[in-house]
Here is the input.
Amino acid sequence: MSRAPVPSGAPDCSVGPLRPEHAGEALTVQYAAYLSEGRRYRTTEIPPLVETVEELAADLRRPDVVGFAAWLGPRLVGSARLRGVGGPDPVAFVRYSVAPDVQGRGIGSALIDAAHEVLPTGTTSWLVTGVDSAENLALYRRRGYAERGREVDAAGVAVVRMERLAP
Ligand SMILES: CC(C)(COP(=O)(O)OP(=O)(O)OC[C@H]1O[C@@H](n2cnc3c(N)ncnc32)[C@H](O)[C@@H]1OP(=O)(O)O)[C@@H](O)C(=O)NCCC(=O)NCCS
Here is the structure.
């Protein structure tokens, strides 16, 4: 996958593959982005905040994982991953994050669009987000996700499972 220009919202941003060598930068952005979720749920133990750089790099070496990075020039400003690509089960959309200082300018939209583009028609993708994260729930609903149930994550936070069928 080559870096492609992002058509709207963030004209100076490009989205391309997230590779193991980007793990350090991606994790730094992920921690900064998810700190607001950690504060919201009063825990720093949510999965995106306890992942290590070794785990992130190892994730990106898995054959079923496809990572996406958003760049502003040389700066990695966001990332997201799909897990379970090419397998029989629904594909997970995880670790969706954009650096706090550049949120709200279309970079997250470019990342989610890039991830959805690689999913063949009829593929189900799923994600979880906190039950109190109203803006995330609204964002995912606008992107075609529907609530499919509730569970509790490894940090004890109640989360909503959402699913989308690729058109
Ligand atoms: C979720 C996140 C990745 C979105 O990235 P972003 O670059 O801010 O996203 P965009 O600028 O493309 O905006 C995406 C949508 O959210 C809306 N939005 C952006 N900032 C918003 C805000 N502060 N309040 C409400 N809506 C907002 C935009 O209008 C846009 O709506 P659209 O889908 O109708 O186009 C980013 O906010 C983030 O990293 N949050 C912290 C980590 C997190 O919560 N991740 C998801 C957990 S499941």
The first helix runs from residue 23 to 40. The helical segments are 23-40, 47-50, 53-61, 107-117, 134-142.
